[in-house]
Design brief:
It is a single chain. The protein has about 210 residues and is mainly alpha-helical. It has 2 domains: about 55 residues, Homeodomain-like (Arc Repressor Mutant, subunit A); about 140 residues, Orthogonal Bundle (Tetracycline Repressor, domain 2). The protein is built from 10 helices and no strands. α1 packs across α2 and α5 runs antiparallel to α10. The longest helix has 25 residues. The protein is elongated and about 65 Å long.
């Protein structure tokens, strides 16, 4: 669909159904393992109908990824340089954990893209992502210099937050298998644990 005519309600519904189905298929199989036929079947559409909206599997994948990085960066953008340092960083941890709970397919899709070498979002990673991380790392460094946080490497702190929160989406099956009936919902316990870890790590010495 490349013309400039207004999109009808049915067209918007079908486009949304395709992207939802594609998210399921890509997050399970990756780009290489997914097919247009699989996506069309999951969306309840014929292959020719799907190709009316998206010219190729690549076009569908690119449409999904285009909004994904922004979604991933939004919680980091919300870290306020004027806020209380520890509370700002704990709020960031909570927001990232909430994303793992609420957007597990998106997390898996992003992880697959990164593991494959980020062939489609590499420029964004070394551009907008790096610029934002550098900006927030400078904020963390200023808090440390003012004695408001314990000394840590700010970039590796951000990496740790990513890995420790996204683990609960990307390795959900493993987490739930280990916890079993003791903790059928791992997220409340994960939140308490991560707050304890980062509070102890980041609180300045008296």
């Amino acid at each position: 669909m490349n013309d400039a005519r207004p999109v009808t309600r049915i067209q918007q519904k079908n486009r949304t159904a395709i992207l939802e189905a594609a998210l399921d298929v890509f997050s399970l199989n990756g780009f290489g393992g997914a097919t247009v036929d699989q996506i069309a079947g999951a969306a309840g559409l014929s292959k020719p109908n799907l190709l009316y909206y998206f010219a190729s599997k690549e076009a569908i994948y690119s449409a999904l990824l285009s909004g994904l990085l922004d979604t991933w960066l939004d919680p980091l953008r919300e870290v306020d340089p004027e806020g209380e340092p520890l509370e700002e960083l704990l709020a960031y941890v909570r927001r990232k954990l909430e994303m793992s709970r609420d957007l597990p397919r998106e997390s898996k899709l992003f992880a697959i893209e990164i593991i494959q070498g980020a062939p489609r979002i590499g420029d964004e990673l070394s551009g907008s992502l790096r610029a934002l991380v550098d900006e927030k790392a400078a904020v963390i460094e200023s808090w440390i210099a003012a004695g408001r946080l314990a000394p840590v490497n700010p970039h590796h702190l951000i990496f740790s937050i990513w890995s420790m929160t996204q683990h609960y989406a990307d390795f959900d099956v493993q987490v739930r298998a280990v916890l079993g009936a003791r903790e059928p919902d791992p997220f409340p316990g994960a939140e308490r644990y991560l707050e304890q870890v980062f509070t102890k790590m980041l609180t300045p010495s008296a």
